[in-house]
Write a structure and sequence with these properties.
alpha+beta, Bifunctional nuclease domain, 5 helices
Length: 183
């Protein structure tokens, strides 16, 4: 069974200095943290802020291609958590019928935000996150800081996303951090 989620925001994992995309269900019962890359976080943050770029970025291009082909995104689903890797699916409706496309969650969510599609997370994924958290807890002293959802209580809603903090983080990066993305 799937639970509908919304993007609650993007935060920085303080231990790894890596962006974490935060999904929350509509009733705020469940929180799903997904560690993502800097480029993907930027793509999501740009859409959350409704920042217009002079040229289409990758997810804008994908949205435009789908629109030109007459395809629509029905929904995206975070379907699995295997070996600390999340898996997602983009559900498309095309003239030839329904199609399901394998995707990274960050890309699927960046697209969903651009087209207004619903975001769902499989209950098994939420349960797996809970069991990982319990395992982390049992192997650490009681006063240890968990790297899981405990630090997520400082999350601001996506509509209150602090662009200046994100810009400050991006400006603080060393160009070497983008090694594989150099042009």
């Amino acid at each position: 069974m799937f639970i509908e989620m919304k993007v609650a925001g993007i935060i920085l994992d303080p231990s790894a200095n890596v962006p974490v995309l935060i999904l929350k269900d509509r009733e705020d019962r469940y929180t799903v943290p997904i560690w993502i890359g800097i480029v993907e976080a930027s793509a999501i943050a740009t859409e959350l802020e409704k920042t217009t770029m002079p040229r289409p970025m990758t997810h804008d291009l994908l949205r435009n291609v789908l629109r030109e082909l007459g395809a629509t995104v029905d929904r995206i689903e975070v379907t699995e958590l295997r070996d600390n890797t999340f898996f997602a699916a983009i559900h498309l409706r095309t003239a030839a019928g329904a199609r399901v496309i394998d995707s990274r969650p960050s890309d699927a969510i960046a697209l969903a935000l651009r087209v207004g599609a619903s975001i769902f997370v499989e209950e098994r994924v939420i349960a797996a996150l809970g069991s990982q958290e319990e395992e982390d807890q049992s192997s650490r002293p009681e006063k240890a800081v968990r790297s899981g959802p405990v630090f997520l209580s400082n999350i601001e809603p996506a509509d209150k996303f602090d662009k200046s903090k994100w810009a400050e983080f991006l400006e603080s990066l060393d160009p070497e951090d983008f090694g594989k993305y150099k042009m």
